[in-house]
Amino acid sequence: MTRRLLLIHPSFIKMRSLILNGEEPAIGSFSINMTPYIFHIGRTTIYYYKTQTYSVFGIGYDTFCDVLYPLEKSDDRPGGIPPDGKGWHLEFLGIPYDYIPTAVMIPN
User: Fold this and answer.
1) Tell me: the pLDDT tens digits for 74-88?
2) Is 12 helix (H, G, I), strand (E, B) or coil?
3) What is the rounded distance in angstroms from the CA atom of residue 104 to the CA atom of residue 39?
């Protein structure tokens, strides 16, 4: 499901087009906000590599932690709770975990 939702995400479609048209480097990364599609992925980084015949997009080099991240300190919430990564403050009785990296290979 995650890979399918990634492939139809408007930001992914736009970046893939820029990569295929040579407007972005053949090797790189970009950020994508998957929160509206899959909340637990949230904002993540997609790493990619383009060859003449195919492109590989790697996802999942991330963690799921801080379920209550809307309470974290940020530019929008200067008085929020300091982010703690996999710490215990914002887990809300959940167990943080690392994603198992996965890749999608798409013909150009």
Assistant:
1) 777 788 777 666 666
2) helix
3) 20
